[in-house]
Structures are given as C-alpha cells and as structure tokens.
C-alpha cells in the first residue's frame, strides 16, 4: 500500500466509516428479514387454504419463519455488538489523536524557545566582545569629539554587519550617551540614561565577563521600537577590578526575532491534512510572569496571557499540554520551557494553542 501520510485522526475517521457501513449492511439485512417475514406469512396462509394438501408447504413455511427469526436475532446482536465496539474504538482513537497532537505541539513549542535561547546567547557574547573594542575604550578614556566620532563610526560598521540591532549606545560613567552607531536615525548623543536598569547593572557588575539585561519594551530613545537590551561595562587596564569607564548597551530588534520565529512556526504543517479538524492555531512567547512578548495575534504584546492553565504552565520547567473543553471544541494548550544554551537561558515559554472540533 502506498504511503498516504496517515495521521492519528484517520483512525477515528476509519472507525466511523466502518460503523456507518456496517449499520447500512445491518439495515439491508433487516430489510431482507422484513420481506422474508411477509413471505413466510403468505406461505402459511396459502398452506391453510390448501388444507391437507398444504401440510408439506406449511412445514416449509414454518421452517422459513424460524430461520427468519434467527436472522432477525443475529442482526440485532450484531448491530448492538458492532455499535458498542466501534464506539469504543472511536473514543480510544480520538483520545490517542489528541495525545499525539498535544505531544507534537509541545515539541514545537520547545523548539521555539530553543531557537530564541540560542539566538539571544549570541547577543550576550556580542556585547562582551564589543565592549573591549579599542575605539570604544578610547572614547571613554579620552573624551572628545574626535574619539567619540571615531567610536560612532566603528559602531556603525558593526551595525552594518549585524542587522539584528537597532543601535549601539556608548555611555560614560555619568550615564551620558557619548556615541551611537546610528546618529543619522536616532539623535541620542548627550542624553542621560543613568536610571536605566541595564546601565546600572552593567556599571555595578564585577568585571567584563558579566552582562546586564532589560527585557522587551518599547524604547523612547528608538522611536518606540520594541527592543531587548544587553549591556556590559567598559574597562581599560587601570579600571579592571575597579569602577568602570562606562558601559556599552546593544539594542536588539526583538520584533525581528520574536515575530520571525512565530511566523516560521506558522508555516509548519500544524494541522496535518485534516482540514475539518482545524479551527484555529495561535502561537506566543511569554516570560516567567505570563506577559506576552510575541504573538501571532495582533495587539497582544505586553498583555498577560489569558489562559486558565497559565499558573500550571508557569509552575512547570519542562514541556507538556492541557486539554480544555469549550462548547463543542477542544482547546489544546501546548508549552515548552526555555531549554537554555551554553550558559544562557531566558526562562521564557513557547506556547501553541490549537482549537479543534470535539469528536467525543
């Protein structure tokens, strides 16, 4: 038999089809039974009219009637047995199909976070590497237009090669931005950001091997674009182990990753080829508080995920799925927890919800 790319839901469909075909066959048997029953009655009537000469015909008619009754009993027993067994088979197959589908969606949810963790791990490497660039260090060691402009040009070169960033900010120890890589787009030089969490954390870190982080938010400095910020202290030989010269902040374009990952997920055949089962599929990334960081649904970013299983999800550091009955549908909520990569893990969750028709 050629591979038809069967899915678990096909078992339910096949069982349902068998049940219908058998019921049709039983109806046909019952129809034959009714006709033979009428024939048996007519035979008895004719035998009675024939008197003594019809006795032999009566024996045949009686036997015909007995046989007809046996057929009727077999038909009823077969119908009841087949109906019960196929119903059990349909229920088992439906449950198995939901389990398989939930497991698959959970694996995909985990894959979402694997991609995110691996990608953002690279960001932590970038900021620690670029904070040691000589032009960055010298701009803070020797403040002035010449060094600061040179640092800005160097940051621009980096941005040209790493297009996932919106801008890079070089900030002195007082929290004043002295250079950025996109001065033609973002006029931030001279502005003070000493109260931003990434800057304070970077300045208080013990060494350049550490990094600071600010989660997704809309940055006023970058015209309201959604960013993740990674920061690292900037040192020279004299400040190592002491107060840093300042800090470098890299403003990552979160939309370019979050939406891209979810869009890629949407191209996966989440619905198999059984269109009658599919009603809706949604995918999201949430943080450890349940806040939506990215969503396939417009206008959800920044809101808390509305799902009755949210607390159960946040209490789990693995993957899994839940089934929720909603009217005549089943909502499968699958999740995968941040697996981490190397020394980095976001601690976030990939969430896929799929609503399908309830066959049970």
TrEMBL record:
Keywords attached to this entry: Transducer
Any coiled-coil regions, as ranges: none
InterPro entries reported in the protein's UniProt record: Chemotax_Me-accpt_rcpt, MCPsignal_dom
Gene Ontology cellular component list: membrane
GO terms for MF: transmembrane signaling receptor activity
Ranges for domain Methyl-accepting transducer: 20-84
Domain of life, per lineage: Bacteria
Any Gene Ontology biological process: signal transduction
Name the record gives this protein: Methyl-accepting chemotaxis protein
Organism: Oceanispirochaeta crateris
């Amino acid at each position: 038999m050629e591979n038809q790319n069967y899915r678990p839901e096909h078992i339910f469909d096949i069982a349902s089809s068998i049940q219908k075909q058998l019921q049709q066959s039983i109806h046909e048997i019952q129809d034959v039974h009714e006709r033979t029953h009428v024939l048996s009655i007519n035979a008895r009537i004719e035998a009675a009219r024939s008197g003594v000469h019809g006795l032999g015909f009566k024996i045949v008619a009686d036997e015909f009637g007995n046989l007809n009754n046996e057929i009727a009993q077999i038909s009823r027993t077969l119908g009841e047995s087949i109906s019960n067994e196929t119903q059990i088979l349909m229920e088992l197959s439906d449950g198995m199909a939901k389990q398989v589908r939930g497991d698959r969606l959970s694996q995909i949810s985990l894959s979402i976070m694997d991609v995110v963790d691996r990608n953002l791990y690279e960001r932590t490497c970038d900021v620690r590497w670029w904070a040691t660039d000589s032009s960055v260090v010298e701009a803070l060691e020797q403040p002035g237009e010449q060094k600061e402009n040179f640092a800005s040009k160097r940051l621009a070169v980096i941005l040209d090669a790493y297009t996932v960033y919106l801008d890079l900010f070089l900030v002195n120890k007082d929290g004043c931005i002295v250079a950025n890589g996109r001065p033609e787009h973002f006029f931030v030089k001279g502005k003070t950001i000493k109260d931003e969490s990434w800057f304070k954390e970077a300045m208080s870190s013990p060494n350049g091997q550490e990094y600071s982080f600010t989660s997704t938010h809309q940055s006023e400095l970058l015209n309201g674009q959604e960013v993740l910020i990674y920061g690292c202290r900037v040192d020279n030989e004299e400040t190592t182990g002491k107060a840093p010269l300042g800090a470098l902040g890299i403003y990552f374009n979160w939309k370019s990753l979050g939406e891209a990952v979810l869009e890629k997920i949407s191209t996966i055949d989440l619905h198999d080829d059984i269109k009658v089962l599919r009603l809706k599929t949604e995918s999201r990334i949430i943080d450890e508080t349940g806040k939506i960081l990215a969503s396939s649904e417009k206008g959800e970013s920044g809101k808390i995920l509305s799902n009755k299983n949210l607390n159960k999800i946040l209490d789990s550091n693995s993957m899994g799925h839940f089934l929720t009955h909603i009217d005549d549908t089943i909502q499968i909520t699958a999740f995968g927890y941040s697996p981490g990569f190397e020394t980095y893990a976001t601690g976030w969750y990939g969430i896929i919800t799929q609503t399908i028709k309830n066959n049970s």
